[in-house]
């Protein structure tokens, strides 16, 4: 009996350390060597933590230094680790979030290969992490294959062409409501980030879901809480799937929010269904929610979507429609407040096209200067700072051979600041770059600008977001001149999207 027990203890003491050694040392070091032999270097893997401690330290250092002056060179400030590793190890490098390897790619040709995804080899990754899944579910941002095709078709229809035209009066009404409030700030300062956060929530709630501001606000409050939890836990290491067994306070909070989010969305969905079932309405409606419900009730399995898919899709669009757009509106205001010559040029264009009338959809497509300003803002301060994929199987990328199931990250900021593409003045705000169109601005390199992504997964809300921004700035410029508050502190940071951490205060002068 005793020898058997001793044998068990001996095996236990031998096997457990061997597994730990294999998983936490052998595999990472072998991968590191494999990639190095192909020319992909990077910061050395450290036991269990990978490079997370260095990342946290570098981020802390730049956070303290960030507020010093107004420079548009924000890559070293908001992504200091990637910035310094590109300098040290070259355009493509390998680093570690805990034991999870990630290859960062910034060479335009390779980026094109990844995002074109011709053989379907570079997969989406976003919802595989627990917190992300709570935020987006398996909606359009995360879906793949047949499901992605089905969802993309629905979204394309809802956010393009005639549907988009029909939304113009709704968006205009939302901006009017915001500007009514601005009347109380004539000659005073107003912080616009919170204004735009509210506006973009209102716009997506009304245009896509026909929901009122109260219903929408409840959902956005919960999404905002989830975003904070995601950011807080992004670099926390939990090896061996420990996260499944040990529940932290944040995990429990996230579960609670997920349930509340589900219930709030179901309320909106059920209300719309009940209207049809009780005869109050004769159809589910022409907005995005209406299309989702029509598909839900479609018996053809090719078009049918489940109730769970409706919930995920609602979460995806509430999130996608707000976070990114509010960032674009805030940064554009900041740039126009300090580059008042561009503010004047944009105003002149708006007044020529619309006079004092509300914008209309034909006029929006003719706003060339405003368009150039928006694209230059997205180049310098793009909301999305990381486009992530995962290799499905062992595969080639350019001259490299990548292992299966490895994360591949593309930082748009690195391409947007590349002086070989954009010139030595890449850090300057020069909307005139886009005067002759995108191809000319990017020197014919299609992945030089990734503000809305590239390839089949390009942002489905692109036209919607640009229209919303054009309407918003047309209506602001018709009424006001504005300059930057003397209290403004330049501290861009990432809370999933790139945002002005301490807001953007402007001084409003009515015209
Ligand atoms: C200025 C505003 C916006 C920016 C900068 C932006 C940026 C992006 C980027 C870079 C991607 C590609 C992500 C990837 O390839 O992994 C993307 C995808 C997506 N965006 Fe946007 N977006 C904006 C507005 C919107 C709006 C208003 C909506 C919804 C109405 C939206 C919904 C989506 C969805 C659903 C996807 C996933 C598309 C797919 O995978 O097929 N976005 N966005």
UniProtKB/TrEMBL annotation:
Look up the record and give one Gene Ontology term from the biological process aspect.
terpenoid biosynthetic process
* Topology of this chain in the membrane: Single-pass membrane protein
**Location of the protein in the cell:** Membrane
Pfam families in the record: p450 (PF00067)
Question: Which terms in the Gene Ontology molecular function aspect does this entry carry?
Answer: heme binding; iron ion binding; oxidoreductase activity, acting on paired donors, with incorporation or reduction of molecular oxygen, reduced flavin or flavoprotein as one donor, and incorporation of one atom of oxygen
> What domain of life does the native source organism fall in?
Eukaryota
Positions bound to heme: 459
Cofactors? heme
Recite the UniProt keywords alphabetically.
Heme, Iron, Membrane, Metal-binding, Monooxygenase, Oxidoreductase, Transmembrane, Transmembrane helix
**Signal sequence coordinates:** none
Q: Name one GO cellular component term.
A: membrane
User: What family does the entry list?
Assistant: Belongs to the cytochrome P450 family.
Q: What is the protein's given name?
A: Cytochrome P450 CYP749A39
Give the organism the record lists. Salvia miltiorrhiza
Lineage, uppermost ranks: Eukaryota, Viridiplantae, Streptophyta, Embryophyta, Tracheophyta
């Amino acid at each position: 009996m005793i020898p058997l027990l001793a044998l068990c203890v001996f095996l236990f003491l031998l096997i457990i350390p061997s597994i730990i050694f294999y998983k936490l040392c052998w595999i990472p070091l072998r991968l590191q060597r494999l990639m190095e032999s192909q020319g992909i270097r990077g910061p050395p893997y450290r036991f269990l933590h990978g490079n997370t401690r260095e990342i946290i330290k570098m981020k802390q250092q730049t956070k303290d230094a960030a507020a010093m002056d107004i420079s548009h060179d924000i890559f070293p400030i908001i992504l200091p680790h990637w910035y310094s590793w590109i300098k040290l190890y070259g355009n493509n490098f390998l680093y570690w979030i805990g034991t999870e390897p990630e290859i960062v790619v910034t060479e335009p040709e390779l980026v094109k290969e990844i995002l074109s995804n011709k053989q379907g080899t570079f997969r989406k990754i976003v919802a595989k992490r627990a917190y992300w899944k709570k935020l987006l579910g398996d909606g359009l941002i995360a879906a793949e294959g047949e499901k992605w095709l089905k969802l993309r078709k629905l979204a394309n229809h809802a956010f393009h062409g005639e549907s988009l035209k029909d939304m113009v009066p709704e968006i205009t009404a939302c901006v009017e409501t915001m500007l009514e409030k601005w009347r109380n700030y004539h000659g005073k300062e107003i912080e616009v980030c919170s204004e735009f956060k509210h506006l973009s929530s209102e716009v997506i709630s009304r245009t896509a879901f026909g929901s009122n501001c109260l219903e929408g606000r409840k959902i956005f409050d919960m999404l905002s809480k989830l975003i904070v939890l995601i950011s807080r836990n992004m670099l926390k290491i939990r090896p061996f799937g420990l996260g499944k067994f040990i529940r932290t306070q944040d995990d429990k909070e996230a579960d609670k929010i997920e349930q509340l989010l589900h219930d709030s969305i179901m309320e909106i969905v059920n209300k719309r269904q009940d209207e049809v079932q009780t005869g109050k309405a004769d159809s589910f409606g022409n907005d995005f929610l209406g299309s989702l419900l029509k598909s839900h009730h479609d018996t053809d399995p090719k078009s049918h979507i489940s109730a769970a898919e409706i919930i995920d899709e609602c979460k995806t669009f509430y999130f996608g429609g707000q976070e990114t757009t509010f960032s674009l509106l805030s940064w554009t205001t900041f740039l126009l407040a300090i580059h008042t010559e561009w503010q004047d040029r944009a105003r002149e264009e708006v007044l020529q096209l619309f006079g004092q009338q509300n914008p209309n959809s034909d006029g929006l497509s003719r706003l060339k200067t405003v368009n150039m300003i928006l694209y230059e803002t997205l180049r310098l301060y793009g909301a999305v700072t990381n486009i992530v994929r995962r290799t499905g199987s062992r595969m080639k990328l350019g001259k490299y051979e990548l292992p299966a199931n490895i994360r591949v990250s593309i930082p748009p900021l690195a391409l947007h600041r590349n002086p070989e593409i954009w010139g030595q003045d890449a850090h300057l705000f020069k909307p005139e770059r886009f005067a002759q169109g995108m191809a000319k601005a990017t020197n014919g390199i299609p992945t030089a600008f990734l503000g809305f992504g590239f390839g089949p997964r390009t942002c489905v809300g692109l036209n919607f977001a640009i229209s919303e921004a054009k309407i918003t700035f047309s209506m602001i410029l018709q009424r006001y001149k504005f300059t930057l508050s003397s209290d403004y502190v330049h501290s861009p940071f990432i809370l999933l999207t790139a945002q002005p951490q301490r807001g953007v205060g402007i001084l409003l002068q009515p015209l």
